[in-house]
Amino acid sequence: MRLQRPDLLFAALVLASTMAFALAGHFAAEAVIRHQQAHQLSELTEVVLRRSEFAVDFAAASLDELAKRNLASCEPAALQAIRLHVYQRSAIKDVRLVNPDGSVICSAYSETLEFDKGWVNRRDMLPSRDKALSLFRVEQFGGDALGVLRDINGSSALVAIVGINASLFDIMPAELRAHSEVILALSSGEKLGEFQTDAGKSLLEPISFDRTSTRFPLHATIGLEHAVLSSWNHEAYWPALAVALGLGAIFGILLARSRRMEGPVADLDRALAAGEFKPYYQPIFDLRTGQIKGCEILVRWLRRDGSVVPPMNFIPLAESSGRIQAMTWQILGSALAELKPLLRANKNFKMSLNVVPGHLLSAGFVETLRRKVLTARVSARQIVVEITERDELDDLARAAAVVAELRDHGFRVAIDDVGVGHSGLSRLKGLGADMIKIDKFFVDTITVDASTTTIVEMLVALARDLHMGVVAEGIETEEQLRALLASGVAEGQGYLVAPPLPFARFSELVESRRAAQSGAAVSNDAALVA
């Protein structure tokens, strides 16, 4: 019996510890799931708000274009030009010239006035952060529309009537659609649009997620029945519980916490010193011909043991710890050395480099970039600086000055993650960039969501008005490629052609594509001679 007693105590301790960790794991898993649910729903609410802001930006840019062309007039020729402008922009239903008090003088499509149930006075219109831009609800018999007013001068203003399509708000996951509602309203509380699969149905014990625009008087809300959360996204419960059971004692976690915080940063410093961060290259190609026009440099961490660390596991830490600048310069130097023969042989080939806002605005950024490119004896016009939007550009005027300086030296500038990042389209115009990159979020859904196609077409139209190029990211299927072509996108990148590749494989891909296209051209010439 004495020999069995230690075994019993050991078993009791193990059982008690297992039960304690199981209980802690249960609560931790529930907390993680709830947090993830709230995060996803907050992101969806943000998407609704961003789509709405895009619609306003689109209308404002259209009105600016009309004013620039001196078309703020009721002359027949001016109205004919406005009608053509509206016809080319399906999201806009009408453009009207109004008095300073908001009363209508004339309309591009006068018949649309018959559908108005009412028209607000200027004092009832809601101002935006841009004081010359105001929003208001246009109540019509066929459903509400959004009025976007742009002051032209002291005696008149232009108003764009923007149709609010409920399909723009059809963003909820399939398992939540029947138990949720999505609402867009003005900050005054006036509802502009709503999506609900069962119109008029009241939600049981609803919870809501809200977002208010900092640029426009717009407010987005997602309402959801509380009960549906109990079964949504619970696939993570058992993995989270398994992880909890594998954790050490709570005090051990607390004591090791400081080491865990310091260890990764020290690993980054060691990897930088050892040159373990390597450039990978993802082709940027012509959507119509398949010709590789350039590449984007993406960093990978190749450890000494041969393992590859994905960017998501070290880029956020590199940014927060201030190592991202040294990492960017190291990657650029390696990429210029590897790509130099290709860049010098093909002067139209472009190399894109990601730069975070903090690095762009840091002292000496432009001088350091010029020095590295000049040392490599590569043309500055072949280098594209992609400004990523993980952090917001707090000082837009300073950023615009840096962008202008880069362009003066021959560099090109692109804005990455357009549509889901921090910058609104009016800020894109203020930066003066050469191109925009449509985020993978839109490419993923362009073949299944009509509202995505509308947004992409709006982005392309705005880019064209601002004399900017467009590149689509994350293209994975031929169907997506065809949909992007139909929307006016000319260039893209994605796994359809190749994932990010090490230099040797990227070089082989470029050469094989060049040889194949040269062979096809020779065959076509021979056929023409025959």
TrEMBL record:
It is a multi-pass membrane protein. Keywords: c-di-GMP, Cell membrane, Hydrolase, Membrane, Signal, Transmembrane, Transmembrane helix. Its EC number is 3.1.4.52. Residues 261-514 form the EAL domain. It is an enzyme of class 3 (hydrolase). It catalyses: 3',3'-c-di-GMP + H2O = 5'-phosphoguanylyl(3'->5')guanosine + H(+). It is found in: Cell membrane. Residues 1-22 form the signal peptide. InterPro entries: CSS-motif_dom, Cyclic-di-GMP_PDE-like, EAL_dom, EAL_sf. Pfam families: CSS-motif, EAL. Its main location: membrane. CDD domains: EAL. PANTHER family: CYCLIC DI-GMP PHOSPHODIESTERASE PDED-RELATED, CYCLIC DI-GMP PHOSPHODIESTERASE PDEF. This is cyclic-guanylate-specific phosphodiesterase. It comes from Bradyrhizobium zhanjiangense.
